């Protein structure tokens, strides 16, 4: 798309605090003159038979067409025999990699100030196969499925990411000493891809040891790539190192170049509509979308404005111990732009 | 056993630094007049057909008879088509729970100074079933098995432990939102046992969230109980919080009241025989054995001597940045007794 034609992107404001924090992103994007035109979609109030969930078919079509999107928190309505909204999105859009750039934020002190790593999680298979059954009474089993295709795809994404983002090393996380066939296949695929990237260092780290090293010295890691469940665990662990899900950006990569950025925290219904929510995770997530579109200048500018506002510490929302409203914090970011 | 008859306990000094650190425990026990008589067993140099591993049948018989033992690090010889020594011990002795008291050590500073929790890991099934196969080329699967029997057994141990050790709360760690049948059964068993312990609080925490909370605020946790792989991951994560495997005690509980304490760190062949090894993990592990035998006075005395020596900071081995020898550190502990 040329510089003058805006890029269309799907926006799922989501539930609870979603609309407020989405508003914050829209405002910051306007201020920074990001050439994006939003196509907004809300979660439906009844099950769409074509998606078997509360997500409308139109909203999925919108992402498929635009190939980029941003998603706020979505609370799956409980107890109605349908699929979780997040899992449905992953499945329907074939979002095969979840990518989380995880870096210490100036202005929000945790026990760690030296985190700067990327977790890349395979997002479609592994322990999430949904294949489970009772063998006999009192004995149940779950199947973990690893395929060559999905493993190569996520490994390829990880190395490509490392190369295009100036990263030096990819660590494949596994438990192949116990699951020799499944995690063994995952490692084999990573090794094959590693061969094609001689400039990127490659290592393999057992998951238990990885978690121990992460809490001792996260600076040891650069890009981590791993099967689904390990990614689920490690990406949240890493979020904890920098302060939690309210500060952690996330982006899902799908087949055909789809990028759906998302805030992975909850919808916080208790504070919804009160102008108290922290939009940081959604803002930082929106940057991953911009970078996916190679709008690095815009992303850098907005990132600097967010980080400066945070360092200054004057406008801090309640979850971070401050008293600022969502809109004041957003205005402060706009002022920094 | 009466006060005058010594209790027989099996000792596997293990490989590499094993014999040196085992010597350290023997010395400290002598100094503290612990009424234990060691029955020493080494790993064999050929496969014993009765155990299908380098562990001798006699050594396993010794643990079965004595019901208590202490184990140093064992390096499984590589590439000979036999079972790992650690896994063989778990299988043969039916060591169904791995228990790790994890507490911040005075005198060894990490980013955390408020850790005081117990991880209890189911040690026999789950992802460690060894059942894996290729479905078609490029598609492999591993089976995770959860049984009612093993889940009840470890849950029962966890609540019993909490009750007898003055602990207030048991948290069951799971991913039942994804693995509803397997982790769901595990939770169901924990709930059943929880009913029998109305004085112990019970909660359920999803593993990804648990890891995030652990790195943010480990003081939130008391006793954690979980299926095999989550236990593998979380017990090492927690070890990382207090400084690593070189400082973390561990004990395996088997059917019929067996307790096999063990240092879970490696055998460090590079420094073996040089009087440089850190015996702390094995010493702290030996305390879990004493507590299992209800020799709490002895355990308390030795624990205080170790902690005082560590706080003093004068005798610190190389792995902790000091220059003390194994034997000087051991002597210092004996002096504190
Ligand atoms: C809610 C749950 C199903 C989900 C997952 O396990 O993938 C969540 O933890 C996540 O990481 O997005
Ligand atoms: C070496 C490995 C098989 C073992 C395990 O995964 O159980 C280790 O990590 C442990 O925790 O004892």
From TrEMBL, chains A, B:
Its cofactor is Mn(2+); Mg(2+). Gene3D superfamilies: Isopropylmalate Dehydrogenase. It comes from the Eukaryota. One of its GO terms (biological process) is tricarboxylic acid cycle. InterPro entries: IsoCit/isopropylmalate_DH_CS, Isocitrate_DH_NAD, IsoPropMal-DH-like_dom. The keyword Transcription regulation does not apply. One of its GO terms (cellular component) is mitochondrion. Keywords: Magnesium, Metal-binding, NAD, Oxidoreductase, Transit peptide. SUPFAM superfamilies: Isocitrate/Isopropylmalate dehydrogenase-like (SSF53659). One of its GO terms (molecular function) is magnesium ion binding. Residues 8-333 form the Isopropylmalate dehydrogenase-like domain. Heterooligomer of catalytic and regulatory subunits. Belongs to the isocitrate and isopropylmalate dehydrogenases family. NCBIfam families: mito_nad_idh. PANTHER family: DECARBOXYLATING DEHYDROGENASES-ISOCITRATE, ISOPROPYLMALATE, TARTRATE, ISOCITRATE DEHYDROGENASE [NAD] SUBUNIT ALPHA, MITOCHONDRIAL. This is Isocitrate dehydrogenase.
């Amino acid at each position: 798309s040329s510089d003058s034609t805006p890029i269309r992107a799907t926006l799922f404001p989501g539930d609870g605090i979603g609309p407020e924090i989405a508003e914050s992103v829209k405002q910051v994007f306007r201020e920074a003159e990001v050439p994006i035109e939003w196509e907004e979609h809300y979660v439906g109030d009844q099950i769409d038979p074509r998606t078997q969930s509360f997500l409308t078919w139109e909203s999925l079509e919108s992402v498929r067409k635009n190939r980029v999107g941003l998603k706020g928190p979505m609370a799956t309505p409980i107890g109605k025999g349908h699929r979780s909204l997040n899992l449905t999105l992953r499945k329907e859009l074939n979002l095969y990699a979840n990518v989380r750039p995880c870096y210490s934020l100036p202005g929000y002190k945790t026990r760690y100030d030296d985190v700067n790593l990327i977790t890349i999680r395979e997002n479609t298979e592994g322990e999430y196969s949904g294949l489970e059954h009772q063998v006999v009474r009192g004995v149940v089993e779950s199947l973990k499925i690893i395929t060559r295709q999905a493993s190569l795809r996520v490994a390829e994404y990880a190395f490509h990411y490392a190369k295009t983002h100036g990263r030096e090393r990819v660590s494949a996380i596994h438990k192949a000493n116990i699951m020799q066939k499944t995690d063994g296949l995952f490692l084999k695929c990573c090794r094959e891809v590693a061969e094609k990237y001689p400039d990127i260092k490659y290592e393999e780290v057992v998951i238990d040891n990885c978690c121990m090293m992460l809490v001792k010295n996260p600076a040891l890691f650069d890009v981590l790539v791993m099967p689904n469940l390990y990614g689920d665990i490690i990406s949240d662990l890493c979020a904890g190192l920098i302060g939690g899900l309210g500060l952690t950006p996330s982006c899902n990569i799908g087949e055909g170049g789809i990028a759906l950025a998302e805030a992975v925290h909850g919808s916080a219904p208790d504070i919804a509509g009160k102008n108290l929510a922290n939009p940081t995770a959604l803002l930082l997530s929106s940057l991953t979308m911009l970078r996916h579109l190679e709008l690095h200048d815009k992303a850098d500018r907005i990132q600097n404005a967010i980080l400066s506002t945070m360092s200054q510490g004057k406008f801090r929302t309640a979850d971070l111990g401050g008293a600022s409203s969502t809109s004041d914090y957003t205005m402060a970011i706009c002022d920094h732009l």
